[in-house]
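Notebook, p. 212. Picked up where the previous page left off. The plan for this session was modest: take the two constructs that came back from the sequencing core last week, fold each one, and keep the raw output in the notebook itself so nobody has to go hunting through shared drives later. Recording the first one now, exactly as returned: residue sequence, then the structure token string.
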Amino acid sequence: MDKGKGALALVTVPAVVVSSMFAFILLIAGGNSAGCTVPGATVDVAGVPSTAIDGYSGAQLQNAAAIMNAADSQGMDLQAQLIGVMTAMGESGLQVQGRGDTAGPDSRGLFQQRSSWGTLAQRMDPTQSATLFFQKLKTIPDWQSLDPSIAAHDVQQNADPNFYSPYFAKAQEVVGKLGGVDTNCFTAKQAGNDYPWQSSTIDTLSPLGYDYRECVDFVAYRLNRDAGTSHAPWKYTWSNLTPLGGNADQWKTSWEAHGWQTSHTPIPGSVAWWGSGSAGSLGHVAYVQAVNSNGTVALEEYNWNDNHSYSTRTIAASAVDDFLYPPPRT
């Protein structure tokens, strides 16, 4: 099994010091992958299925259909429809809410829009509130290249940029079945072996503080890339990403110590994690390229089966011990 050796045994060697923060500009999920251009789908609101889709039913599915149609009427594609439905799932559970919360007592509707967004009648109407959402989404620079949750956050200005991520797979299921379209082409934009140290000597430290061509170094590179940097100064190194230990089996402990989210539910761009009990003595980590509707995940990884090389595989999500969500981006 893979050995995800990190810098734990080499703590006398200083890791790279992170000196600045970067804006998140790269896609980890939801953007058009190569060759994937999908127009928006029009849905008959009155003809939505009578059976539930991933836990959503009745008026919830009618509201999702209204959101999809609002995007289509704005000339926006399937990616926008996914973002809109995902956002409303997170904000209201696809229900027209007639109340706000402590942070926004005047928030109303599917998107919990505040009074500055429009009249109460507009915010309480599924089509009009969705139209307001998509009109704002259009103003976000390069919104198509952003992680869906980041794009939604830029529109909603909510507290947690990653808040909507757990709803993306659910939005794929609902939008796909309502629109009769394949949403699985919306996966990570940049797949393939982009690891910059493909020929570097193993058992020596990379600039990230892990050993070259180990699973941990590849995944650390991807987390950096997805956070907006692919060169020094790095945002995440061993010293601040997994200071409790660089080996793969110790990554979840570091995530928990940081207070970062872990889940049995995968999202694109997360870390597939195995502890020492199920993946050799040092565990293993891989990068989740895509989450498929059939319960599988597409992985990219280094050093699977001790080959110190790049590889891909698709496995059941249930075969992964846990998923470590990307660190919050500030």
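Okay, moving on. Second construct, recorded in the same format:
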Amino acid sequence: MEDCGIAIGQALAEALGDKAGVRRFASVVVPLDEAAVEVVLDLAGRNFVIHEVPVPYEEINGFDTGLLEDFIRAFAQAAELTVHTHLRYGRSPHHICEATFKALANALGDACALTGRGGVPSTKGTL
């Protein structure tokens, strides 16, 4: 999972380039049945992770739920993102993990969206 996070993070960093014209920040809560996970992120160019998603251990089709945090951390480091993940509530390991991945994907979609303003969204001129 760590290697997958690194590879996907590197691909995202390469695709975003200098991040000119992107929204940069995003916050999303994704519900999945009894679970709800919040992901807040910044395409900051700095790696920082707060991961508060305690997942009961389970193996789901070969996926070890204990590796969820490892993926998030590796992905954020490789993509140079600030990511905060928080489990608002949930019981099913499957729903918690799925909601986490879907919240991350949705937040990334929002943060990477082009605003039409051009330029890098930073007072320093670089991310």
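Notes on construct two before I forget. The first helix runs from residue 2 to 16.
Flagging for discussion at group meeting.
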